[in-house]
Amino acid sequence: MAPFGKKSDKQWRFVGHEVTRIEDLTLSHIRSVYGLGCKNQEQDNAKEPSGQVSMEESSESIFPYCSNRYFDSPPLSPSSVKGHGTCSAARCKDGNPHCLNYLGQEQWEKDDSMENYFATVARKPNPRLLKRPEGTPSGMKNLGATCYANSLLQVWFHDLAFRDAIYRCQFRDDIAFSTDALYQLQLLFVHLDRGLKSFYNPLSLVNSLKLDTAMQQDAQEFCNLFMARIDTQLQKQQDPQLGDFIKSQFLGHYSYNTTCKNCKKTSKRDCQFYELMLNIKDNCTLMDCLEEFVEPEDLVGADQYSCSICGSLQDASREIKLDKLPNVLNIQLMRFVYDSVTWTKKKSKDTIRFPETIDFSELLGLGESVVYELSAVLVHSGPSAHSGHFMAHVLDRESNKWFVLNDEEVSEFHGTKFDLEDYSESASSAKTKKSAAKSTGSNAEKNLSILSSRNAYMLTYTKRCPEPAFKPCAPPAKTLAIAMQDNSDFMNELEEYAQYKEGIEKNFKKARDERRELYQCWHVSCDQDNGYYVSAEALSNFIQFQDEIPLTLDNSNLCCEHGKLCPTGVLKSKRISKTAGKLLEDRWQIKMTPSLTSEDICLTCARDLFQDKLYSFIHRRDVEEFERKAKGVRSPAAVWISKPWIADWVKVSPRLHTAQGTTADDPSPVSMAYLPDVLCPHSGLSSDKTKRKLINRAALEVLTRIFGEMPLPDSEAVECLVCRDQLQPKLDDLKDLAARAASEKSELSDMIMRGARVRHMKPGEKYYVIAQDFMKIWLDFIKRPMVNKRPTEIDNTCLLCKHGQFTFDLDNIIDVENEDEIAVIKEEEWAYLHATYEGGPEITVTRTEVMQPDHVQTNLRSVAESVPSLCSSCRNERILDFSSTTLIIRVFSPGEAGVEGNDSIAPSDSGSEKVPDIQDSGSSKKSSTNKRKKQALSTPTLEIGSRRSKRSKATKKPYKEIKIPVSKWETVMGLKLKIMQKTDIVPLYQKLVHEKVELDKNETTIADLEIPPNAVLDLIAFDQRIDDLTLSSLQDFPPMPGDEGGFGGTGLAEDWL
C-alpha cells in the first residue's frame, strides 16, 4: 500500500494504520488533522457514546512550528521540528498553518522597499521624469501622426541662422496669436531653446496650421509648403534682412546646357532649387549620385533637340551645371517613387554612403575649396511609402554633438549608420571613425564616405564659414516670458510632487511599522498557544503594499457548512497568536469574519472525511488484492459477474460509491442495477455476452469477504433457451440485413471505389444527382449493417428550390467541391438504387463540349446541363447562407502581377494562369458594390473534362495557395491580418481581388461583399525594391515651394495673415 503523498493526505496518515474503524477515532486523532495535539491528559480516558469521539492518546503535530524569520525569537525545541526538515517556501508557504514566513513580509524588509511601495500606491505621474537633462536638446510630442512635421521642425530649430530669423520676427498686439502660425513657431523655438521639460507639445502650432493629427503626410511636401509660407511671412516683416532670408539660405541655381552637334551652338536654361533631388541605387555614395545628376546625356532619335540656329531637329548633348549652392543645402534622396508596373508609390531600401564633410569645388568648377558639413539626416523607418515613422538626426552646434530626435525621445548619437536597427553600434568604434575622418585633409574629406543609411530621405549640409560660429539673438521678450512662466509652473509642479512623495514616505514608514509590529508577534510556537485561524490569502493581501487597510479579514473559505473550521480549510489558513489577533481587532479595528480558534474544529466534518479517507484506503487495498488474484493467481473459473460493475468498482473513485459510506455499503454485483447483466428474467444465464465476465475462485473470495455470499451463475451455466428463442428472429433479421448490404456493396462496388464526385463526370454521358444525406446513411449501412440503420428511400427534395429547379451549378468550383450535399452517380447505378429504395425526384446532368477560342487557338470546354434547370437566384441565396468558411487565397509573387489578364480561375491542371484584370482603384471604390449586385454569384469556373492543346506546356504556377478560415462577418482588414500571419505581407502591400474587383474597403465584411464560401481570391503582393528608375524627367521641373499637394484645406494651403 503506497503511503499518502499529498499535503492533504499527511493530515490523515493514521487512517488504515492506527485507526481502521470509525469507532476507534479519538479527539486526539481529529486534533492531529488540524495540526494540534491532545488538549490535556485528563480527558484521555473519557469514553464517548457510540458514534462520538474519545480521547486516548496524543499525536505529534504534522505541521512544523517554523521560527519567525523577521524576529529574533528563541530557538524551538528539537521535538517541535523533528522530522520536518528546514523551513522553505516549497514546504511551508501553502499547507502549513504554523508557518507565517512567506506572506509578503520580505517586501517591507528589502532595501528598495520604499521605491516599490511608492510605485504601487502613487497615483500622480512623476514630473521629474519630464525634466530635460542638462546638455540635451528638447524633444517634441507626437500628436498621433505628426512625426513628419516634428522631424523637420527640429532640423530648422537647430539651424542657428533660421532660429535667429524667427526670433527677430515682430508681431502686432492686435493679432490672434493662437491662430498665427509664425508666432506659434517662434513660441515653439523658445520652448525648445529655454524650456525645462524634456519635450514640448506643439499642439498650438499644429492647430494654427489646421493639420490632421491622425493623418500621415508627405514630409517633402510639408517642407516645401511650410518654407513657402515662412518666406511669405518674412517678406512682410519690417526688418529688411528677413525679406530675402529664405532665398539667401536655401535657394540654389543650376543650368541645363544643350550643345547642338551640328552647329556647335550651346543654349542655356537657368533653374532654381530649394532641394536637390538625387536618384539613388544600392550601395552608392553621395558623390556617385551627384555625378550621375550632372552626367551629360545624348539627345538622339526621338529625343533630338530642336536647334533654333539649324532650324531643325538635331542630335545634341545636354549636361547640368551647378552654378551656385545655398548656404544650407537640402539633398532630397528619392526613396519614395512610383512604380510604373504596379502604379503604386513604393519605398526604396537601397543603402547610400555619405561623408561628414564634402568639397563641391570640382562640381562648381571653382579653384578654391567650397566645403560643406553634414548638419542633419532625416530618416523614414518602415517598409511602406504610405506609413512608417519619421525622425531626425541633428548636429547640435552649441555642444557639437549629434542627437537622435525621435519625437519625445532624445538621445545622443555616436553611430555611423543612420538606421534604427543599427543603433547598437559601439560608441567607441563610431567615435574612432569620425575622429579619423576629421583628421584627414580636404581631398580625403571630399571622397570619404564613412556614414551610411538605408532609410535616410534627406541630408542637410551647411556651408563651412571662416567666421566665428553664428550665435542667434536672444528670444523675444513676450514669447520668452511665456516660456519662463511655463518653466515656473513646472518647477511648482516638481515642488508639489516632492511634497506628495514626502507624504507617501511618511505613510510608508507608518505602514511598515504597523506591519512589522504584527508579523513580529503573530507566530505561535506550540499547541498550548491560544490563537486564531486566518485565511492565508486574506492575511497575505493585508501584508501587501496598499493605500488603505482593509476593514475585514474574510475567513469564509475556511468554514464548513456547519460554520466551523473545516479540516480541508486548515490547509488554506495561517494560525496567528492571540496577541496578533487582539492587535488587529483593537488597534486597527479589523474584524476576522468569522473568528476561528482551535475550539472551532468541526468534529462532524472530521468524521465524514475520515470515513471517506478510510474508504479510499480500504477500497484501494481491496482492488489491488482483487486484481492481483484475478490475474496472477492460478485458480479455476468460478462465476459469471457483471462487466460494467467491475469496470466501475476498480476505479479509484467509483461512481457507484456514496459519500461517507463503507466498502460494504457499495452496491454489490448482485444488486438490482447489475444482476440483469448476468441473469435473464427467467433466472438463466444472460444471452448478452458483452455484459458479463468470468472471474476465478480466488477473486470471488475477495468479493465474498467484502459483500458476503452472492448468488451468481457458475462457469458451467448455459444460456437461457427461452431468451435465445426470443432473440432468434432478431438475429435472423440482422443476418438478412447483412446479406442485403453485401449484395448492394457488390453491385455498386465500382461506385464505391470511384467515389460519387462531380469531378469524375465525363462529357457525353448522362449522370444522376443524389443527395449526400442518403449516400452517407447508405455507406454506413453497407459497412456495418448489424449496427447502422438501413436508409428508407431516396429523398432529393433538399436539392431543389421552391420553384422546383436545381440549386447547384456544376460548372462552379464551389458547388463542384461541395461533397457534403451532392453526389453524382452513373445511370445504371441510379437505376439499381432507385429500384431498391425508390423515392426521388430524378435530377439528371449531362456534360457537353463547346468551342472556346482564345488568343492562340480554339479549345474544347465542357459545360454541365441539368434537368431540372439551374435556378440562379435560389442558388445565390443558398450559398450565402453560412456562418464560417475557408477562403482560398492565391498569392502572386512580385513581378507576376499584371493588369491584363483573364478571369480568376480555380486551381486546376490547365496551363498557365494569369492574374485577373484589376480595375482602377479610384473607380472600383464607386463601382465594386454595384458590380457585385448586378453579377450573379459566379466564382471561378472549373475546367472539367476540357482538352488542352498539345502545344501547351506545363509550367510552374505563378502563385502559391493558402487557406484562410473566416466568418461571414469578417472584415477585409481582418482577412488581410490573417493573411499577414501566414505570408508576412503587411496589409498595406496586399491588393485583394475577387471577380476582377479589388477589395479596397477594409471596413466591409465578407457578407457585405457577397463573397461565397470556399471562394478563390487573388492577392497581388507589392515588392519593396526599386530597380532602375530614371528621374531625369522630374529633374527638368523640380518641385518649388508652394504646391499644395495633399495639404489642401490646411493652413499650409492658405495665406497667413
Note the main attributes of this structure.
flat, alpha+beta, five-stranded mixed sheet, 39 strands, single chain, disordered N terminus, 1057 residues, 32 helices
Tell me, rounded to a whole number, the average pLDDT.
80
- Roughly what fraction of the amino acids lie in strands? 15-25%
**End-to-end distance, in Å?**
97 Å
Structural class: alpha+beta
Number of helices: 32
Number of strands: 39
Uncertain spans: 1-5, 41-59, 73-85, 424-449, 897-954, 1023-1043
Overall shape: it is flat
Q: Rg, please? A: 45 Å
Q: Summarize the amount of helix as a percent range.
A: 25-40%
Strand count, sense and barrel status of the largest sheet are: 8 strands, mixed
Secondary structure layout plus pairing:
Layout (H helix, E strand, L loop, with lengths): L6 H4 L16 H7 L44 H4 L7 H4 L13 H4 L3 H9 L17 E2 L6 H11 L2 H8 L13 H14 L4 E2 L2 H6 L10 H17 L4 H4 L1 H6 L1 E9 L5 E8 L1 E4 L5 E2 H9 L2 E3 L5 E3 L4 E3 L1 E9 L3 E6 L2 E4 L4 E4 L4 E3 L2 E3 L1 H4 L6 E11 L7 E8 L4 E6 L2 E4 L14 H12 L3 H6 L3 E3 L2 E8 L13 H43 L11 E5 H8 L8 E3 L18 E5 H10 L3 E3 L2 E2 L5 H30 L4 E6 H7 L42 E5 H11 L13 H27 L1 H6 L11 E6 H12 L10 E2 L17 H4 L5 E5 H11 L1 E2 L3 E10 L4 E10 L4 H8 L4 E9 L28 H14 L24 E9 L4 H12 L6 E5 L2 E2 L17 E6 L10 H5 L21
Parallel strand pairs: 1-2, 5-11, 6-14, 23-25, 30-32, 35-39
Antiparallel strand pairs: 3-4, 3-10, 7-10, 8-9, 11-21, 12-13, 14-20, 15-16, 16-17, 16-21, 17-18, 18-19, 22-24, 22-26, 27-28, 29-31, 29-33, 33-34, 35-36, 37-38, 37-39
Helix pairs in contact: 6-18, 9-18, 21-23
